[in-house]
């Protein structure tokens, strides 16, 4: 399903936003140039994005569980990532998942890191 966008309304919105940052947007070309030149303000870079796969070593079962990130909830206190099982056998609500401080401890961004953590935990077990 496609969504039609009213070009004039979009231009007006873009124009209003850039005017707030001190740019005088006169055309779509000017708007695009302003986007390229505009400074990044309060940018937050997340370690993963929606659609990424993350890996959880499951020592109790001896394997790596794969999840797909389905949501990112950001607040001043923490960043929470909602996830669902990659094989689709179970879906968790957006409030379940992991917090950013779990990355590199209980949840890993690469399978290799998760496998290494699983080996270490099994050896220390």
Task: Sum up the structure in keywords.
about 120 residues, alpha+beta, 2 domains, 4-stranded antiparallel β-sheet, 3 helices, about 30% helix, about 20% strand, elongated
- Number of contiguous helices: 3
Pick out the low-confidence regions: none
The string of secondary-structure elements, in order, is HHEEEEH
Overall pLDDT score: 78
Estimate the strand proportion. 15-25%
Count of separate structural domains: 2
* Spatial shape: elongated
Helix-and-strand structural type = alpha+beta
- Report how far apart the termini are: 51 Å
- The count of strands amounts to 4
Sketch the major β-sheet: 4 strands, antiparallel
Taking all Cα atoms into account, the compactness measure Rg is 21 Å
Helix content: 25-40%
* Widest beta sheet: strand line-up: 1-2-3-4
Polypeptide structure, described:
With 125 residues, the protein is of the alpha+beta class. The longest helix is centred in the N-terminal third of the chain and has 14 residues, at 7-20. It has two domains: 7-37, no CATH class; 53-124. α1 (7-20) packs across α2 (28-37). The mean pLDDT is 78. β1 (53-58) and β2 form a beta hairpin. It is elongated. It has helices at residues 7-20, 28-37, 111-124; strands at 53-58, 63-74, 79-85, 97-99. A four-stranded antiparallel sheet has the order 1-2-3-4. The N and C termini lie far apart (51 Å).
